[in-house]
Write a structure and sequence with these properties.
Blueprint (H helix, E strand, L loop, with lengths): L11 E8 L9 E8 L13 E5 L2 E2 L2 H11 L10 E2 L4 H5 L3 H12 L1 H19 L4 H132 L1 H25 L6 H54 L1 H9 L3 H12 L17 E2 L2 H10 L2 H4 L2 E3 L2 H14 L6 E3 L14 H11 L1 E4 L4 E2 L2 H11 L5 E3 L2 H8 L2 H6 L10 E7 L2 E9 L6 E7 L12 H77 L3 H99 L2 H8 L8 H17 L6 H21 L3 H37 L3 E8 L20 E8 L7 E2 L7 H15 L7 E5 L7 H15 L15 E5 L35 H30 L1
Helix pairs in contact: 3-4, 4-22, 5-18, 5-20, 5-21, 6-17, 7-17, 22-23, 23-24
Length: 1040
């Protein structure tokens, strides 16, 4: 599964290879493969996760394979050109026939194809008879096909002539279009100049009107100011007149009232006497009511006694009330605590919903979640997810650790508990709806028994001495299916979590070695742990090299959690739930006490009611008596007032009224005179204002006419300005178009070169004629299907017909024809193959001798070496049994033996294999070769000799004037390590590529600061020295 190669929490990997042209004038191809973690199905092992591009264009994998196989002769499956480490045994395990086929594929596809053709021809010769009619039918068919090709050839020639005519007409059209646009530009220029002249004349005619308008406008403003001032004066004088009239009317009304009062003085005296008699009778009635009231001393005594009893009962009721209020306050406090705690618990419980909303940003997750919710009844067991919503970290720190360790794809995954639910969800989501989600199966949703990485004893040491706290799976809570999915996917039960003390342990002792050492002391095991240092979150992964066995460390800074964000400790939830339970118990306990106190309060209230009624009755009696005393006093006062009014002097009152009436008459006359004067002034001002308004109207009418006249003149001028701007813009546009057309015409048909041809008699002279001629030619061209290969096909078919005719004329039957073909192919193939085997044999023998061994390469001819003695009719070549034998000898006393996995060791097979491939090096057609870890099974001596041979064969100089593919071939040697001081490493043709796949490696080698590294190392060593010295001093003191 290619997705497994995507590391460091990335979601995408990109591989790009650039292949140089394999032939002169060839095209460079850039091949790119994009692997996406979230694509591809689980059942298909991620086959759909990759997308392929050739030169930036998305291309199917099949087309990519065809390109590299056919154009570059690269065959990935051929072990002679691409030999992985795990295939060395397969190579040496080839039989002689398979080795020959692999060798032919690597050297020449024609050689391999000829071999296959020979096998086929031999088989056909043995099984078929004469079939001359088939050849004749084929010849007849080819002739018919060639007749059709000949007609197509003539059409292609006609099409080419039409295309040349179209090109010429397009050149003519470009110059005709230029001439047309030039005439339009000249016309636009003349129009612009005419409008410019009209614009200037219009601007001159507007100025006198503007001056007259401004003068008239000033007069209108002046007379309007005068009119407004007169209006204000008229308004003020009218107000004075109306004020005087109002005052005169008020004096008239007052005179009428005083006269009426004067006339009613005698009648009022008689009414006062009668009123006095009425008040005296009322006084007698009030004095008689006093006899009905009891003694006030008894009433006061009753009130005092009732008040004393009521105070005692009230004090007891207040005490009960305070107790009730205290209990209610406790209940209110409990309810408030319960409500606030419930809200907080609800907010904590809503973290799942918040995470769901974050995950819903991914459309695939939301669509899958909605489908699961809508179809819950279709599943046999519960379905959980996305996983990010089901996890509850203890705090924000642990949330960051968990989110860093678990991949984004897992957070978006869903968990099912049975295979049936898995199949249903996969079919509905992945296959039908094409929603790319991951589904994890946890059988029956059970959490398997956790097998800890460290024993309790070692974990105790890690906690006590190295600052570790717990395992990563203990830093959060989740239901069993989710926990099992995370353990199965990311081994969270084997990851440690620590604090600041971990860094101190790393600095002062070899914690990495201790944590990776197996407890039985037999080897190392990889480890991963999180910790904090100076308020920063760190992750350290310790790996064991598969080749060297050394410990390697990968350090990462841990970012703040985004998906999980802050978590809540489950104990906090339990604490909040306990607070709610305590509040409920308090409410239930205090409610009966309140009910009892309320009953006692009601009894005291009932006990005090009769006393309260008696007290109220006594107070009412006292109040009524006091009201009576007040009533009596008031009545006596009324009698006194009535006596005073009845005994008053009427003559003096009449004299005062007369004096007052005279003063009011004088004031009324004065107001009338002032009103007359104000009216006279007002009318005078109105007459002046009327005259001014009439003048204002005349001037306004004149101003309106001038305004209309000025607006018409300005509109006409503005219209001309607008027309002038449009004309100028049109002219500039046409001029720019004309410039571009001239450049285009000069580019496609320079006038000094094409003028004579374009002005020829057979060329149309108008745009319409040119367009008509182009359309006619294009119509004819479109009616002829473009087939650029028709000429080549025609010549090839013609040559094939001639060859077939010649063969048919010379050969008497199909068998003889095939026999001759076989002999022709066999002679060339055998000669070429023998030549290759001899070349490879010579080099292989030499190379094997260099390493102190012996070797030969032999061509096995299928047991047909004595075929010359057989009768011609019964010749059997056994091409399918031909092969190549690698003969080797590694010890002086032994003889040459065929290389095999059963006879020879891994190192012997590696040496033989690489030397055979070196012998083929210069003969291969593939532009490069690749061998993976071929040196890992060799001893030091053989590895040095093999490396030297690879360097010599892969760095041979290219001859001058050679084609791009005439070189010894690029050679890729993939290895995790090389011996020091290898001969040939100084060769300039060798390129060493170091692969660093870590997430935090330098982007540029120049970023590596050696001085800083040495300074940091010295600082760490100095700190360790100081610690060691301190420990030594402590030991000395203890020993003393």
């Amino acid at each position: 599964d290619a997705r497994l190669f995507i590391k460091h929490e990335k979601d995408q990997a990109i591989i790009e290879i650039e292949l140089a042209p394999h032939h002169p004038g060839g095209k460079t191809h850039t091949l790119k493969r994009v692997i996406e973690r979230d694509r591809g199905s689980e059942n298909g092992n991620g086959k759909g996760a990759s997308t392929y591009y050739v030169n930036g264009t998305k291309t199917p994998l099949k087309s990519v394979r065809e390109l590299v196989t056919e154009d570059y002769h690269i065959n990935i499956d051929n072990l002679c050109t691409f030999l992985p480490q795990d295939k060395v045994g397969n190579f040496s395990g080839f039989d002689k026939q398979a080795l020959l086929l692999e060798t032919e594929k690597s050297l020449s596809s024609a050689l391999y194809d000829t071999h296959q053709q020979l096998i086929k021809l031999e088989k056909e010769l043995q099984s078929s008879g004469n079939d001359v009619k088939a050849t004749e039918d084929k010849l007849k068919t080819l002739k018919k096909q060639n007749e059709r090709l000949e007609r197509e050839k003539e059409l292609m020639e006609e099409r080419q002539e039409l295309l040349e005519r179209i090109d010429l007409l397009n050149k003519k059209r470009a110059w005709l279009l230029f001439d047309t646009k030039r005439a339009e530009a000249v016309e636009a220029k003349e129009k612009r100049e005419e409008l410019k002249k009209q614009k200037r004349e219009a601007e001159r005619s507007v100025r006198p009107i503007q001056e007259a308008h401004a003068e008239m406008e000033g007069k209108v403003v002046q007379i309007q100011t005068t009119s407004k001032a007169l209006d204000v004066k008229v308004k003020r004088e009218r107000k004075n007149y109306e004020d005087f009239l109002a005052k005169m009317e008020n004096h008239s009304d007052g005179i009428e009232r005083e006269v009426s009062e004067y006339q009613s003085i005698d009648a009022q005296h008689r009414r006062n006497v009668k009123e006095l008699e009425r008040e005296r009778r009322r006084l007698q009635e009030v004095e008689a009511e006093g006899d009905a009231y009891p003694s006030m001393e008894d009433t006061e005594r009753t009130i005092a006694e009732c008040a004393q009893e009521i105070r005692q009962i009230t004090r007891e009721m207040d005490r009960k009330k305070r107790a009730i209020n205290d209990l209610k306050r406790q209940i209110d406090d409990a309810k408030e605590t319960k409500n606030s705690t419930s809200e907080r618990l609800k907010k904590i419980n809503n973290e799942k919903q918040q995470r769901l909303q974050r995950m819903f940003k991914f459309a695939a997750v939301k669509n899958a979640y909605d489908f699961i919710q809508e179809n819950r009844k279709e599943f046999r067991r519960p379905v959980h997810g996305p996983i990010a919503a089901e996890v509850q970290p203890k705090n924000a720190l642990y949330a960051s650790y968990i989110e860093n360790h678990v991949s984004q794809a897992t957070w978006k995954s869903f968990v099912v508990e049975c295979q049936e639910d898995y199949n249903y969800l996969y079919r509905e989501i992945r296959q039908k709806r094409k929603i790319p989600i991951n589904i994890i199966l946890v059988p029956n949703g059970k959490l398997e028994t956790v097998s800890r990485m460290y024993s309790d004893q070692k974990m105790s040491v890690l906690k006590r001495e190295h600052g570790f706290i717990e395992y990563l799976d203990e830093t959060f809570t989740a239901i069993d299916p989710i926990m099992q999915a995370l353990i199965g996917r990311h081994n969270i039960d084997k990851v440690l979590v620590g604090g600041d003390a971990v860094q101190e342990a790393l600095d002062r002792r070899d914690l990495q070695t201790y944590i990776c050492t197996k407890e039985n002391g037999n080897g190392y095991v990889a480890a991963c742990f999180f910790y904090t240092y100076r308020n920063e979150m760190k992750k350290r992964t310790v790996n064991i090299s598969r080749y060297t066995g050394r410990i390697g460390v990968d350090k990462q800074d841990v970012a703040q959690a985004k998906v999980l964000q802050s978590g809540t400790d489950p104990r906090e939830k339990e604490r909040l739930a306990q607070i709610i339970n305590d509040a409920n118990e308090t409410i239930e306990r205090l409610t009966p006490e309140i009910d009892n106190l309320n009953e006692e309060h009601v009894k005291l209230h009932q006990q005090g009611q009769p006393i309260s009624l008696r007290s109220k009755e006594a107070k009412r009696t006292k109040s009524d008596y006091l009201n009576y005393k007040s009533k009596l006093k008031n009545q006596r006062s009324k009698v006194a007032d009535a006596e005073e009014r009845a005994n008053s002097d009427n003559a003096e009152e009449k004299s005062k009224r007369i004096r007052k009436i005279k003063k009011m008459i004088e004031a009324c006359i004065k107001c009338g005179e002032d009103a007359a004067k104000a009216h006279s002034e007002m009318m005078k001002t109105i007459r002046v204002s009327t005259g001014v308004k009439m003048s204002e109207h005349g001037l306004s009418e004149s101003l309106r006419k001038l305004t209309d006249k000025l607006s018409e003149a300005q509109a006409a001028s503005a219209e001309l300005v607008s027309q002038y701007k449009e004309a100028e813009a049109e002219y500039n546009q046409k001029k720019e178009i004309l410039r571009k057309l001239l450049k285009k015409a000069e580019d496609i048909a320079p006038k000094d070169e094409w003028a004579e041809r374009l002005d020829a008699d057979d060329m149309p002279t108008s745009m319409e004629a040119v367009d008509e001629a182009i359309d006619d030619a294009e119509s004819k061209v479109n009616s002829i299907t473009d087939n650029p290969h028709v000429m080549r096909q025609y010549e090839e078919r013609k040559k094939e017909i001639e060859e077939l005719q010649a063969k048919l004329d010379t050969e008497g039957g199909e068998k003889d024809l095939k026999k001759k073909q076989l002999e022709n192919k066999f002679t060339k193939w055998e000669s070429k193959l023998m030549n290759i085997v001899n070349q490879v044999n010579g080099k292989f023998s030499t190379y094997m001798k260099e390493v102190g061994c012996a070797g030969e390469i032999r061509l096995y001819k299928g047991g047909n070496e004595a075929r010359e003695n057989e009768e011609e009719e019964n010749l059997r070549y056994n091409f399918k049994d031909w092969g190549v034998e690698i003969m080797v000898k590694f010890r002086e006393a032994s003889t040459l033996q065929v290389l095999s996995a059963q006879t020879h060791s891994g190192g012997e097979r590696s040496v033989s294999t690489i030397m055979y491939l070196m012998g083929l090096q210069n003969l291969m057609t593939s532009p490069f070769r690749c061998v993976d870890e071929i040196n890992q099974g060799l001893d030091e001596r053989n590895e040095r000799l093999v490396f030297k041979r690879i360097v010599n064969n892969s760095t041979m100089p290219v001859e001058e004037g050679s084609a791009p593919n005439d070189h010894c071939g690029q050679y890729f040697l993939i290895t995790p390590k090389l011996l020091p001081n290898l001969e040939g490493m100084e060769n300039e043709e060798i390129t060493v590529l170091f692969v660093f796949s870590g997430a935090f490696n330098f982007d540029n080698c120049l970023d590596w600061n050696v001085d800083k590294f040495i300074a940091d190392k010295k600082r760490i060593l100095s700190q360790r020295t100081e610690v060691d010295m301190g420990n030594n001093r402590g030991k000395k003191r203890r020993s003393q």
